[in-house]
Amino acid sequence: MQSNPLREGLDLERVPDPSCLVIFGASGDLTQRKLVPALYSLAHEGLLPEGQTIVGMARAEMTDDAFRAAMRDACEEHARTQPIDEAVWKDFARGLFYIQGDFGDAEAFQRLAARLEEFDTTRGTGGRRLYYLAVPPALFGTIAESLGRQGMVSDPEAGGPYTRVIIEKPFGHDLATARELNHIAVSTFRERQVFRIDHYLGKETVQNLLVLRFANGIFEPFWNRQYIDHVQFTVAESLGVEKRGGYFDQAGIARDIIQNHMLQLVSLVAMEPPAAFEADAVRDEKVKVLRALRPIERAVRGQYTAGAVLGEPATGYLEEEKIPAGSNTETYAAVEAYIDNWRWGGVPFYLRAGKRLPKRVTDISIHFRPAPHALFAELGVTTQPNVLAIRIQPDEGISLHFDSKVPGPTIRTTRVTMDFCYSTSFHVEPPEAYERLLLETMEGDATLFARRDEIETSWAWLDPLLQRWRDDPEAPAPYAAGTWGPDAADAMLAREGRTWRPL
């Protein structure tokens, strides 16, 4: 492999102490597609400690060997590092175990506790526990109570080995249910033990937002209302609801994407410099942004109809499996948001998310104000404002778009791009988000995880809009599958003389 000086020093990353990671819901899709493949990739990169132990627990009957075989198949299909390295897999598989049981069954948790204590001796895990709740939120309380009753949660204030719990989204259906879930979590665990995972925060370019802003002196002086005209956030999916129709129709795109992923991106783009690169210092600044969000005044909701995506015919939302007739659930949402503080006063933040759009892409674009004087206008030259584009997925990277003179004897300009791409600059594909987040959990670094007040503040901002849509009998605006959403979303920007950035 070609040597890359930009990767020098990466071998200095600290390997955490071995622990027992228990995955509740180990027979589910998340475990097979994301969690175990991510853990294997960490092992392949030498970032998992010797003795790291992974215990799957679910209702399905399975032996340790059957679980290992199923996880081998999952890694062959989904792991980033391919092909599977036999020596790495052999060591990794030694740490894979399975326990069958119902999450409310005290006897099953007794067997789990006994197995974990055995591993403390045989695999050197030293009482360190990570519990991953890869289950629907309705089961959070049952599992938390079972762990508490069996004495499987250590109090961090008392010292000794750590216990941490990882919770998957959705973090509630609204503000009331979010508060209820948070109450369940802190009834068994202390807040500092709870890691609410949002996989967007594990993406390399999302993490790079902080480095881009706070490690480069050329950007931060211009990162404010004096120089920035507006900011756009796009989370586009080419797929429909697939097999998640029942869940999605109860949620909608605003709950599924805007409340969590997009507001996390907004807070990172808009936050003030933290006092230190520490979990609470970073999250304190993110919460300040969320609390400064003005109540939503303008928003558009849409629902896809039949069309074509990437050259393939696509059915409309109401024809999808498990979608009730006449459903008003939005598959597209666009919101105009304002942050009422000194840095961002008057700068609109446009958020759009949708399904059955022309391509899968997540993009942030910072649109700067035009030059104060059109110096070349008398020569018939029209220039465009600068744009800093941050690609979250796919092809993670950052681009700066600006005007440049075309070679020749006359003054003519054209749009040019300075482009940075992770895969070409570092000669490797960026690690999967779950790889980074699982490693951060093992190390106890909560910087990339949502705190309780972040979750509740974001729901408090979005809830009134959802209530408005719930009370509105008018159906969402239709848009054909394979287009960029309803015309009303374009009109929302056009009223201020703006347009969505072409992707």
Please give a handful of descriptors for the protein shown.
Rossmann fold; 503 residues; 2 domains; alpha/beta; 35% helix; globular; single chain; Dihydrodipicolinate Reductase, domain 2; nine-stranded mixed sheet; six-stranded parallel sheet
Helicity range: 25-40%
Low-confidence stretches: 1-7
Q: What class would the helix/strand composition place it in? A: alpha/beta
Count of helices?
14
Query: Span from first to last CA?
Result: 33 Å
Q: Major sheet: size, sense and barrel closure?
A: 9 strands, mixed
Structure description:
35% of the residues lie in helices and 21% in strands. The chain contains 14 helices and 17 strands. The protein has a 9-stranded mixed sheet, sandwiched between helices. Strand 4, helix 5 and strand 5 form a beta-alpha-beta unit. Helix 9 (253-270) crosses helix 13 (452-471). Mean pLDDT is 90; it is low at 1-7.
Explain briefly what this protein structure is.
This protein has 503 residues and is of the alpha/beta class. The chain has helices at 29-44, 64-78, 86-94, 106-122, 140-149, 175-188, 204-214, 245-251, 253-270, 279-291, 422-426, 433-443, 452-471, 487-494, and strands at 20-24, 53-58, 96-100, 129-133, 163-168, 194-197, 228-236, 298-305, 307-309, 312-314, 332-338, 348-354, 361-368, 387-393, 397-405, 413-421, 477-480. The protein is built from 14 helices and 17 strands.
